[in-house]
Structure formats: structure tokens, C-alpha cells
TrEMBL record:
Gene Ontology MF terms in the entry: cadmium ion transmembrane transporter activity; ferrous iron transmembrane transporter activity; zinc efflux antiporter activity
UniProt source species: Jhaorihella thermophila
Protein name as catalogued: Protein p34
Topological relation to the membrane, as annotated: Multi-pass membrane protein
Keywords: Cell membrane, Membrane, Transmembrane, Transmembrane helix, Transport
Length: 295
């Protein structure tokens, strides 16, 4: 079982545990803000299931019908997660509006808050694990799951503060108002997840900093070539795709150009782990004015 799969299973387990704890906190207090926290945890469980399915499918090797692999499956999971986050925000807003129209006092608020804080600590630790390891493993599904949990942690802190203030001031409307603020925060988090995933599904180029690294590696390791141009990049899940044209002297043999390409490919894979590289070799009369000059 891969590390990514283990983390996805861990997310599912943590999501179920935290959901149970937060629902107990809601039952103890009757707080609509704590209920909103519990509703978001339902989304955490659903998205953990989606992430688990996605990472399992994405790990399948390339086949005749998918010669470039199944890596993009993780992006579909992230889009689904964003949609579910938006649905959760709508449900929370509805509950909050009902509580504003019909204010109610809180039961056993301090004990319920203590229970909710415990759930938030678990989420905080797990979201840090997901984001750090998801980035190291280049798993969009795990990173999206971690970022959603981070928004959950932030909103839970707000919930705790809002309910505490409502207790101290005796103003029950603070509880549903805080729930509405949580809904807005969740909507923003969902939009960011969907936007990032859609840009990846549309084969958006790698960040400029990564592109600069690629250009530098080509320039430093393509000694014997004239230049490189038409650099194109994209990424799908854990895999980065890089292709470009390499201009070589017309008299260079096929064997020598092949050795040159192997050297550049090796250097790029060292600098950009998980990259798949395609190099199109051309003679020097194909040189272009805007290109990567070789050191």
C-alpha cells in the first residue's frame, strides 16, 4: 500500500472521529455554530472517501486507453471536494438564518466548547500532515483535503470564540452570526480548491519559479547543443510533463544527440522529480530568436 493511500485512509478515519466529537459538542450545547462545524465535518468524510478513490485510481499504470496514465483522476476529486464545500456552506447558512429568526439559549456551553476544541486539535495536526506530505508526494487530492481541513480549523477557532463571547455577553444572536461567517469562509475555501483544480485540468503551465529551474538545468546540461526553445510544461497529479525543442549542430550524429538528450533528461529528473520529458531534436537552421541559450 502506497504512502498516499495510507494518508487517504487516515483522512477518512480522522474525519469520522472528528465528526462524532463535533456532533456530541452540538448535542451538549444546541449551538448552531457548533452544528455548522459538524456539518462541515460531514463534508470532510465525503471528500476523504473521494480522495481515497481518486488516489487509488490515479496510481494505476498507463494502459492502451490511457497511455499518459491516470494521474488526473486526483484533480476530479479536488473539484468534487470544492463542490461539496459549497453545498456545506449553503446548509450552514440555512441553519444560521433559522437561528437568527428564532434565537435560542445554549445548554452546557463550556463543556461543549471543550469537546469541540479537542476535535479542532485533532484536525489541526492532521491537516498539517496532509499538506506537508501531500506536497512532498505531489498529490493534489491530499493537498486539497489538507487545505479544506485548514479552513475547518480556522472556522472552528472562530466558532469557539463566537460562542464564548455569546456566553459572556448573554447575546445569543452571536451564535448564528458566527455560523454565517463560517459559511462565507467555507465558500471562499471551496472556490479556491475548484479554481486550482480546474486550472490543472486545463493543463496550466508550471509556476514561473519551476520554469526558471527547468531553463537553468537545460542551459547547464546541454553543452554541445546550440539552444532550446518552445518549452512547454503541465502537470497531472504527481507527474510533471516537460517537452521542448533542442537545436544541435547539423553535423552532430544521431548517437551523439541521443547521448546529449539522455544527459539533459537525467538532470531534469534530478531537479524535477516525477517528470516525464520529451525532447525534439532539430538542426541549427531551426534556431529561433527567443530561446534558452546553452552555457
Amino acid at each position: 500500500m502506497s504512502e498516499i493511500t495510507k494518508l487517504a485512509i487516515g483522512s477518512l478515519i480522522v474525519g469520522v472521529v472528528v465528526l462524532g466529537i463535533k456532533y456530541v459538542a452540538y448535542l451538549m450545547t444546541g449551538s448552531v455554530a457548533l452544528l455548522s462545524d459538524a456539518l462541515e465535518s460531514i463534508v470532510n468524510v465525503a471528500t476523504a472517501i473521494a480522495a481515497l478513490i481518486a488516489v487509488e485510481y490515479a496510481s494505476r499504470p498507463a494502459d492502451a486507453n490511457h497511455p499518459y496514465g491516470h494521474h488526473k483522476a486526483e484533480f476530479f476529486s479536488a473539484v468534487l471536494e470544492g463542490v461539496l464545500i459549497v453545498i456545506a456552506a449553503i446548509l450552514i447558512a440555512r441553519e444560521a438564518w433559522d437561528a437568527i429568526a428564532h434565537p435560542r439559549s445554549l445548554d452546557a456551553p463550556l463543556a461543549g466548547l471543550a469537546v469541540n476544541v479537542g476535535a479542532n486539535v485533532i484536525n489541526a495536526v492532521w491537516c498539517w500532515i496532509l499538506i506537508t506530505r501531500g506536497r512532498r508526494l505531489r498529490s493534489p487530492a491530499l493537498v486539497a483535503d489538507g487545505k479544506h481541513l485548514l479552513s475547518d480549523v480556522v472556522s472552528s477557532v472562530g466558532v469557539t470564540g463566537g460562542v464564548l463571547v455569546a456566553i459572556l455577553t448573554g447575546w445569543p444572536l452571536l451564535d448564528p452570526i458566527m455560523a454565517l461567517l463560517i459559511a462565507v469562509n467555507i465558500l471562499w475555501a471551496g472556490w479556491k480548491v475548484v479554481r486550482h483544480s480546474l486550472s490543472s485540468l486545463m493543463d496550466e503551465a508550471l509556476p514561473e519559479q519551476t520554469l526558471e529551474t527547468i531553463r537553468r538545468v537545460i542551459a547547464e546540461n546541454a553543452s554541445g547543443a546550440v539552444q532550446a526553445h518552445d518549452l512547454r510544461t503541465r502537470h497531472a497529479g504527481q507527474v510533471v510533463f516537460i517537452d521542448f525543442h533542442l537545436i544541435v549542430p547539423g553535423e552532430m550524429s544521431v548517437t551523439d544527440s541521443h547521448v546529449l538528450c539522455d544527459r539533459v533528461e537525467h538532470a531534469l529528473r534530478e531537479a524535477i522529480p516525477g517528470s516525464q520529458i520529451t525532447i525534439h531534436v532539430e538542426p541549427e537552421h531551426k534556431a529561433k530568436p527567443h530561446a534558452i541559450e546553452i552555457d
